[in-house]
């Protein structure tokens, strides 16, 4: 009898332990599902990761992990592959944020990735399949970028493009303080001309929810073009920063961070 009671007690202990393990696993799954996403920010042409600093500061204050990845600016497909590699190393859900050409890059991220829960376009390109950034910038009048560019020939016959520093502020960052704009002009990263003319692939915004911020006084991507892309993508929320330059993440970081937080849910 004593032996039988001992066996029953042991069996109950095993069942309790298994149940506890299952509950622990369930709670872990719930915690993982409910945790805050990592915010991955992708800069565009004529900028670098530091252009996201004011936005990152605000996201960090709200308890989010935010990472500004280095965008190679060599070509849409290859830049998207580089981004996919970064995403593969991140555990948990992700919100992707793209500025300018960076929008074309996040558009070409692998849409099948279950970790990307939202796309946020900040004065950005959101091309459909077969479209190029240069094509979209010229869709409506208003872009004056072409006349401000200088080119550096590359060994493969393509060219690196950058904005002439004396013209940088008026073209790219008119609402940014002059000294800060001068630093931005000196640290801008060039983009390969072929990247601006490369056709986009299947758009991630067709299957992933998107949010858009439009820069009202943008001289790179006319605001009408930005709105066209937002409407076509079925934007969950579209905010217009009236009077904002293309460098809206620098000049209006509160507005940008607020939209990112809305997308992060």
TrEMBL record:
- From the UniProt annotation, give the residues forming the signal peptide: 1-31
Q: Which domain of life is it from?
A: Bacteria
Q: Does the keyword Signal apply?
A: yes
| Keyword field | Hydrolase, Signal
AB hydrolase-1 domain location: 39-258
The answer, when asked if Signal is one of the entry's keywords, is yes
Instruction: Tell me one GO molecular function of this protein.
Output: hydrolase activity
| InterPro entries xrefs | AB_hydrolase_1, AB_hydrolase_fold, Sec-Metab_Biosynth_Hydrolase
**By what name is this protein known?**
Alpha/beta hydrolase
What species was this sequence derived from?
Answer: Lentzea pudingi
């Amino acid at each position: 009898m004593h032996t039988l009671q001992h066996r029953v007690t042991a069996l109950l202990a095993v069942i309790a332990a298994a149940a506890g393990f299952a509950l622990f696993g369930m709670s872990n799954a719930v915690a993982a599902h409910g945790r805050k996403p990592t915010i991955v920010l992708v800069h565009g042409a004529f900028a670098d990761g530091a252009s996201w600093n004011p936005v990152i500061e605000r996201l960090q204050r709200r308890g989010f992990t935010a990472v500004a990845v280095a965008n190679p600016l060599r070509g849409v497909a290859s830049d998207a592959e580089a981004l996919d590699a970064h995403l593969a190393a991140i555990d948990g859900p992700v919100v992707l944020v793209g500025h300018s050409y960076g929008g074309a890059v996040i558009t070409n991220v692998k849409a099948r990735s279950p970790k990307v829960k939202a796309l946020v376009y900040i004065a950005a390109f959101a091309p459909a399949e077969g479209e190029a950034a240069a094509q979209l910038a010229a869709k409506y009048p208003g872009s004056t970028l072409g006349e401000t560019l200088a080119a550096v020939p590359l060994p493969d016959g393509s060219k690196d493009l950058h904005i002439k520093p004396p013209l940088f502020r008026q073209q790219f960052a008119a609402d940014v303080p002059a000294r800060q704009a001068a630093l931005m002009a000196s640290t801008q990263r060039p983009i390969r001309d072929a990247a601006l003319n490369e056709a986009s692939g299947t758009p991630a915004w067709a299957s992933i929810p998107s949010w858009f911020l439009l820069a009202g006084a943008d001289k790179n991507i006319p605001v009408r073009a930005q709105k066209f892309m937002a409407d076509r993508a079925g934007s969950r929320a579209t905010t217009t920063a009236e009077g904002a330059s293309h460098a809206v993440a620098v000049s209006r970081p509160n507005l940008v961070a607020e939209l990112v937080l809305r997308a992060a849910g």
